[in-house]
Specification:
Layout lengths: L3 E5 L3 H16 L6 E5 L7 E4 L2 E6 L10 E4 L4 H13 L3 E2 L3 E2 L4 E2 L2 E3 L4 E2 L4 E2 L3 E3 L4 E2 L4 E2 L4 E2 L4 E2 L4 E2 L4 E2 L4 E2 L4 E2 L4 E2 L4 E2 L4 E2 L8 E3 L4 E2 L3
Parallel strand pairs: 1-2, 1-5, 2-4, 5-6, 7-10, 8-11, 9-12, 10-13, 11-14, 12-15, 13-16, 14-17, 15-18, 16-19, 17-20, 18-21, 19-22, 20-23, 22-24
Antiparallel strand pairs: 3-4, 24-25
Length: about 210
């Protein structure tokens, strides 16, 4: 049986997500999956992956068999918008895809997300819905990652950390032990979080400080 996936988004990470899903399905001995992408903003109408063309739809009406979706967008606010539209259209989130090249040892994981190759998740971790852990992230013990969080490549999340709903951790950033990053906050690339960060603000540098407008 061919598994069918609706991928929310049609940009670069959507293509990566599809490739991760292909690897996941083939690793588990399943047939090559089928995809369609949803992008109601740009003019993209087709995506080519491994010499196969896949449609990009605009109208939120889906062919038979396409009933479950996976996130293909990194920006948390865009994720929230697209997930709301998908649920309204009658879709359900697929279980989070864990790439066979990731190491997930002991975690409770929600739905609709992607755990990419090279990710390491250790012990007593809680990961919510629509979470992206991108290439080579590490997540330490007793950490909680709430819904809609995105961790870009090479993030290092220490033990006993809380990443609140919709926060965004830039590439190569580090969050030190027992720290909280507030909801919808943005941590810039290669920043180091050494204290709790309030929500809805952008932080950059070492140590991470608020970016003044």
């Amino acid at each position: 049986m061919v598994e069918r996936y609706v991928i929310l988004g049609a940009g670069g990470f959507a293509r990566e997500a599809a490739l991760h899903i292909m690897d996941y399905e083939l690793f588990h001995g399943h047939d090559k999956p089928d995809f369609l992408f949803v992008d109601d903003i740009t003019a993209t109408t087709e995506i080519k992956l491994r010499n196969v063309n896949y449609p990009v739809i605009k109208d939120w009406f889906f062919p038979a068999g396409f009933t479950r979706f996976t996130i293909g967008i990194g920006q948390p606010q865009a994720k929230k918008v697209m997930v709301a539209k998908a649920l309204q259209a009658g879709l359900e989130p697929h279980k989070t895809i864990i790439h066979p090249g990731a190491l997930v040892q002991d975690a409770k994981i929600g739905n609709g997300g992607i755990i990419a190759p090279g990710v390491v998740v250790t012990t007593n971790i809680i990961i919510g819905d629509y979470v992206i852990l991108n290439l080579n992230c590490t997540v330490g013990h007793d950490t909680v990652i709430e819904d809609f969080v995105t961790c870009n490549p090479l993030c290092s999340i220490s033990g006993n950390v809380r990443l609140e709903n919709g926060c965004f951790i830039g590439a190569g950033a580090t969050v030190l032990e027992k720290k909280t990053v507030g909801g919808d906050a943005v941590v810039g690339a290669q920043a180091c979080v050494v204290s709790d960060l309030p929500p809805q603000t952008t932080y950059v540098g070492i140590p991470a400080k608020e970016l003044k407008k």
